[in-house]
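Researcher: Let's run the pair from yesterday's discussion. Sequence first, then tokens, for each.
Model: Starting with the first of the pair.
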Amino acid sequence: MQTEWMGRYRPLVAALVLNENIVNRNMSVRVPMYQGIGLIAQEWQTLEYLIEHEDETDCMNRISERLGIPQSSLSKAVKNLVAFGLVERFRRQSNRKNIILRTTPLGRELYAHQIETMKSAGFEAFFETLEGLDDETIACFTLALNRLSGQVDSAVALSPLIPLESSDN
């Protein structure tokens, strides 16, 4: 069998593939959350990142890198978050290029309202399953996922260009 190279990790790889496919399928679904506001996954992830890193002044480029969201997609997500009144954009006087994002009171209110739903919708069972693992094991697994993400991203970025078939034929 050609998948033998995965060895004992095959079930884990299969679970990662399934999870990624389910997440990808639902990435553009706008989920109603609070006061008539619905967010897609990247908007939610951006809002959550901003709340988690409130004391930091990461520019949008850095947020894009840390979340693994392409800059164009992050810009679109931020535009929607601003339109919903959940996020505000700022610039430093000394650097007008880098945009700094801050959540609004409404953004924090929406997040506080939605976290119970998020927790009970899946993370509670996920965390419960991991309860038997010590912090070192969780850190090791986190490192493994981060390495996999970095390698996949690098492989895509460095892959050779392949000519497309001409539509003239």
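Model: Moving on to the second of the pair.
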Amino acid sequence: MSKTTVLIDAHCVMCNGMARFLRKRVKPSVDFDVHGIESEEGQAIIASFPERLQAMDTVYVVRNGEPHVRSAGAIRLLLCMRWYYAMWFPLAWMVPLPLRDGAYWVVSKIRHRFGRVSA
């Protein structure tokens, strides 16, 4: 069984929507958790990361103990999902990193326009 933990901005409507979407589509064989970055659990997990990753404002995906950020983390979430989503992993991975992270950056800058979840 593989372990995947996703750390999201718990105040972001878009991030919470992504978490709901994932929970419904994750493979039964995947041990899947979602925590807010602001939560005690989230902060404890982030504290275990290399220092260069700790201050990032991004979604964190931890698969089998290894942290992934930005588009690399998002793409790795495909591996946790049922086959009809997971089959897109190789194609998504072929998109060059600057393009993937550029698209991720644009979405991350406008995500709060969709609203915020109060604590």
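Researcher: Give me one sentence on the second I can quote.
Model: The chain has one domain: 2-114.
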